[in-house]
Amino acid sequence: AIASMRGRRVWDSRGRPTVEAEMVLAGGAMGRAIAPAGASTGSGEALDLRDGGAAFGGYDVTRAVAAVNEVLAPALRGMDAADQTGLDARLIALDGTPDKSRLGANALLSVSMAAAHAAAAAAGQPLYRHLGGEAATLMPLPQIQIFGGGAHAGRRVDVQDFLVMCPAAGSFAEALDWTAEVYRAAGALMKQAGGLQGVADEGGWWPAFSANEQALEMLVRAIEQAGFAPGRQVAIALDIAASEFGRGGRYKLGLEGRTLDTGGMIDLLTGWIDAYPIASIEDPLAEDDAEGFAAFTRAVGDRVQVVGDDFLVTDAARLRAAAAAGAANTVLIKPNQRGTLSETRAAWDAARELGYAGIVSARSGETEDVTIVDLAIGWGVGQLKVGSFARSERMAKWNAALRIEEALGARSRFAGGTRLGRSRR
Ligand code: PGA
Ligand code: ZN
Question: Which of 55, 174, 227, 333 is most buried by a 10 A CB count?
Answer without folding.
Answer: 333
